[in-house]
Amino acid sequence: MSGTETRYGEWIAVRRHGSHVAELALDRPKAMNAVSTELARCLAEACDALSADRTVRAVVVTSTNERAFCVGADLKERNSFTGADFARQRPQTRAAYTGVLELPMPTVAAVHGYALGGGFEIALSCDLIVADRTAVVGLPEVSVGVIPGGGGTQLLPRRVGAARAAELVFTARRVEAEEAERLGLVDLLVDAGGDTAEALALAGRIAANSPVGLRAAKRALRLGHGLDLRAGLEVEDNAWRTVAFSGDRAEGVAAFNEKRTPDWPGE
Fold first, then answer.
1. What does the pLDDT read at residue 4?
2. What is the distance between the alpha carbons of residues 14 and 37, in angstroms, rounded to a whole number?
3. What pLDDT sits at residue 3?
4. Under CATH, which architecture does the 211-258 domain have?
5. Buried b / exposed e across 165-175, counting CB within 10 Å, b at 16+?
6. pTM score of the predicted model
7. Which of 224, 216, 206, 204 is closest to 246 using CA atoms?
C-alpha cells in the first residue's frame, strides 16, 4: 500500500492512493483474516468512515496475507460460543458485511488465495471482483452446520443465477480460479500476484469519472436489479434527476466542449 494510512483497530487499515482511491485492507495475516467479532466491528467502522468521505470515488478491498483474501468466520473464536454469544455477535458481523455492500461508491475486491465463506461474501459485496490464478472461492457454510449469513444466499444468485448458486451452496465445494472466472464468480482473472495492482488500476480508471455520476449509477444498478423493467426505469430516472442538475453535469459538458479534463466539483 502507499499513502497515508488510517487504522481501525488492529486488523483493518485504510490507505489512500492518490486523491480519490481508497484501499481497505483486511490486515489480520496470522489468522488469514478470519472474521472475528473485533475484525467485524473494525470493518464496519471503516466502512462508515469511507461512506462519509465525499472525496473517495472508488474503494479497493485487499488482503495483507499472501495465502488468503479471507478464510471466513473465525471458527476458533466460535468454538466456545454459546447461543447467547452467537446472538450478541450477529449484529456486529451483519453490520460489517452490510457496510461493504452499502458503500456508496464503486468497490473492487482484489482476491488471491482462499476467499471462503464470509471471506467470499466480502468479495461478493463489492461491485467487481479481480482475482489472481491462486484464488479459491466458495461458500462452504453448510459443511459446518450453518448457511451463508453475510449476504451469500442473495448475492451469489444475482451473479450466477439461482440454479448455479444452489449447486455451489448445497455442495459447499471450493472453486478454483479458472472455473470461477468461467462461472462468473469473478470478473477479471490475472496472473498470480497481480490482483491488487490490477484492482487499483481499475479503481483509478473508475475514479477519473464524475463522483456524483458514479454514486448515482451504482444506486441505480443496485436498486433496479430484480425489478420489472418499468420499475427499474423509474429507479434509473430518479438517479438521473440527481445528476442532471448537478455541478458535475455542468462541468462534464463544459470540459467536453472545451476539450479538457473535467475538474469535478462533486456536488
1. 87
2. 19
3. 67
4. Orthogonal Bundle (1.10)
5. beebbeeeebb
6. 0.95
7. 216
With a cut of 70, which residues of the chain have pLDDT below it? 1-3
Q: What is residue 216's three-state secondary structure?
A: helix
d(CA 22, CA 15): 6
For the annotated catalytic residues, the residue numbers are: 73, 118, 121, 141
Query: What pLDDT was estimated at residue 2?
Result: 55
Listed by start position, the domains of the chain span 5-207, 211-258
Q: How far apart are CA 14 and CA 6, in angstroms?
A: 5
Q: How far apart are CA 38 and CA 73, in angstroms?
A: 12
DSSP state of 67: S
Distance CA 161, CA 206 (A): 27
In angstroms, rounded to a whole number, what is the distance separating the alpha carbons of residues 66 and 80? 29
User: In the chain, pLDDT over 70 holds for what percent of residues?
Assistant: 99
CATH topology of domain 5-207: 2-enoyl-CoA Hydratase; Chain A, domain 1 (3.90.226)
* Pairing between β-strand 21-26 and β-strand 12-17 as defined by DSSP bridges: antiparallel
Q: In degrees, to the nearest 5, what angle opens at C-alpha 138 toward C-alphas 220 and 169?
A: 85
State the pLDDT at residue 1: 44
Cα 89 to Cα 40, 46, 142, distances in angstroms: 9, 18, 19
Contacts of 259 (CB under 8 A, 6+ apart): none
CB neighbour class for 83 (10 Å; exposed up to 12, middle 13-18, buried from 19): exposed
What is the pLDDT at residue 244?
95
